[in-house]
Amino acid sequence: MKKTVLMAAVLVTMLCGASVQGWAASLVANIDVSSQTMTVRYGQSVYRWSVSTARSGYFTPRGTYRPQRTARMWYSRKYHMSPMPYSVFFHGGYAIHGTGAVRQLGRPASHGCVRLHTANAATFYSMVREVGFGNTRIVVVN
Questions:
Q1: Exposure string for 48-62, b = 16+ CB within 10 A, e = fewer
Q2: What is d(CA 21, CA 131) in angstroms, rounded to the nearest whole number?
Q3: What is the 3-class SS of 111-142, one letter each residue?
Q4: Which distant-in-sequence residues (6+ apart) come within 8 Å of 107 by Cβ?
Q5: CA angle at residue 20 from 14 to 26, to 5 degrees?
Q6: Distance of CA 84 to the CA centre of its chain
Q7: What is the pLDDT of residues 26-73, one digit of tens each?
Q8: Which of 13, 26, 43, 67 is 20 to 30 A from residue 136's alpha carbon, by CA?
């Protein structure tokens, strides 16, 4: 009887520990719309990149998300087949992706996506693919 209770306690502890660990993301991207920056924490590494979010008349959704899908190269059917390299979609059609309009980085310029330098988008895309969607958190704040 004591053995059964002890085994049950160990099992519950393991399950609770796994649940808590499942909620902790090993890759976190914090996007600050007011400063037009994205800070990425990946293990011990921290990256800070300039981004462009929604310009006037458009909206970048705020909140906490997990990636929904990725595409090494995507073309926006909604916006004249605009290229979206290294896309990480996080809320419907909204994505973090590379852009050729690097001169616009650091100020609002997009239709709602989070644009960043293509080299940085490739880095972030690789991180997401490495750790998995469940271990990635994307936070968009004002």
A1: ebbbbbbeeeeebee
A2: 14
A3: CCCEEEEHHHHHHHHHHHHHHCHHHEEEEEEC
A4: 36, 52
A5: 120
A6: 15
A7: 999 999 999 999 999 999 999 999 999 999 999 999 999 999 999 999
A8: 13
